[in-house]
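Field notebook, page 115. I keep forgetting to write these up properly, so this time I am using the form the group agreed on. The chain and the ligand, FE2/S2 (inorganic) cluster, are recorded exactly as supplied. Prediction of the bound pose follows.
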Amino acid sequence: MTSTPLPLFKALPCADASVDIWFNDQPLRVPGSRSVAAALLAAGIARFRATPVSGAPRAPYCMMGACFECLVEIDGVPSRQSCMVTVRDGMRIRSQEGARDLPPIPASLEDAHGR
Ligand code: FES
């Protein structure tokens, strides 16, 4: 006999308006007035990033900015803690795959380092 897995989270009834976002190019309607992490979890997203070394899947753990397991790219900015950012209509969110590239060195700093 197979059983249907129970959802990890059950949203409390509330009057918050839903917002439309994209996660890895998938359109989602999620509850608003909460963190990106809470909104994605409510939509059934269970994999937020992959570790740089093994590629193991990761998802939010602490929901308070301490563990960094919830890192995603939001509107083109990598390494955002999704539990610390309020979801907004139109956000484009991508899972973070492995290590991020370092940002380019500004020209003013290149001169200081003799490059
Ligand atoms: S879930 Fe721990 S830092 Fe976001």
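OBSERVATIONS:
- DSSP finds two helices and seven strands in the chain.
- The chain has a mean pLDDT of 88.
FOLLOW-UP: compare against the apo run.
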